[in-house]
Design a protein that fits this description.
The protein is of the alpha+beta class. It has 2 domains: about 200 residues, Cation efflux protein transmembrane domain (Alpha-lytic protease prodomain-like, Up-down Bundle), CATH 1.20.1510; about 90 residues, 2-Layer Sandwich (Alpha-Beta Plaits), CATH 3.30.70. It contains 8 helices and 4 strands.
Length: about 300
């Protein structure tokens, strides 16, 4: 598993700000050339992208700060707040688009210079697609929720942009001007769902949700194989906070074992766990064998 690299993650976040500004400029030119409500909705979402990219950069820098007296468990949860705020802003953008689409349906207008506007939007869409794919891949590798969420939102934006371009092509072919505001409304629905999905994805982290079953099985397996000399591990608990994973459990050892020997076993377990999982925080409570519960993780 790739180790989290705060410097690399920070560079990606700065790149997101630059890319989002360029994409916004291209999409605004597309809207200005055509007056299309569908392209307006696409440009409005790009404004949200700029704001959220800046917020993600701030959250990533803050989350990388080391633990201090006021935050003894670190600042890694800051990324969740960034994602929640991004979701709220996306929902607000969707509501604004709905309003413009409603007015457009009541009084549809023919588009001006549609091909030029569609070309600018197409370039912006390709740029978004490439950067969004990169953010998702590297966000997962670097264990950055904010980067991965930003990438998923960009890919959602790509989907709506492609739909807008196809729909505008149909509007040009048929001469039905009302297709433009209808497309804007459909984009708003897509954006609304994207915003809710982002908010929902961060709730688990804010509520200290446990790691996935697959990760939990991996942790159990590592403990079982690296705790030679101990008897069992029980009351295993996990939680995620941004890129950091917290693991705590009780380790049962023979009652005659010295503190130094028990400490050595704990060191072996911690080394093995950190080799298997990046950005891990481990707490082990050592107990004598009369405290064994005979369930949990048996040492092989």
């Amino acid at each position: 598993m790739a180790e989290s690299n705060p410097t690399a993650v920070n560079r990606l976040a700065i790149g997101s700000v630059v890319i989002s500004v360029v994409v916004l400029a291209l999409k605004y030119v597309a809207y200005a050339k055509t007056g299309s409500l569908a392209l307006y909705s696409d440009a409005l979402e790009s404004i949200v992208n700029v704001v959220t990219a800046v917020m993600a950069l701030i959250a990533i820098r803050y989350s990388a700060k080391p633990a201090d007296a006021n935050h003894p468990y670190g600042h890694s949860k800051a990324e969740y707040f960034s994602v929640v705020t991004e979701g709220v802003l996306i929902i607000i953008a969707a509501l604004l688009i709905f309003r413009e689409a409603y007015d457009g349906i009541l009084a549809p207008k023919l588009l001006a210079a549609p091909l030029g506007g569609m070309a600018f939007n197409g370039v912006a869409t390709l740029l978004n697609a490439g950067w969004g794919w990169l953010l998702i891949r590297l966000g997962r590798e670097r264990r950055s929720l904010a980067l991965a969420a930003d990438g998923r939102h960009l890919m959602s934006d790509v989907g709506t942009s492609v739909g807008v371009l196809v729909g505008l092509g149909l509007a040009l072919a048929t001469g039905w001007a009302i297709l433009d505001p209808i497309l804007a409304a459909l984009v708003a629905v897509s954006i609304l769902w994207s915003g809710w999905s982002l908010i929902r994805s961060s709730i688990g982290g804010l509520m200290d949700e446990a790691v996935s079953d697959e990760s939990l099985d991996r942790i159990r397996d590592v403990i079982s194989k690296s705790a030679a000399g101990a008897l069992e591990a029980h009351d295993l608990k996990t939680r995620r906070a941004g890129r950091v994973t917290f693991v705590e459990f009780h380790l049962v050892v023979p009652g005659t074992m010295t503190v130094s020997e028990a400490h050595g076993i704990c060191d072996d377990i911690e080394r093995a766990l950190r080799a298997a999982i990046a950005d891990l925080r481990i707490t082990i409570h050592v107990e004598p064998e009369d405290k064994a519960k005979h369930h949990g993780v048996l040492v092989l």
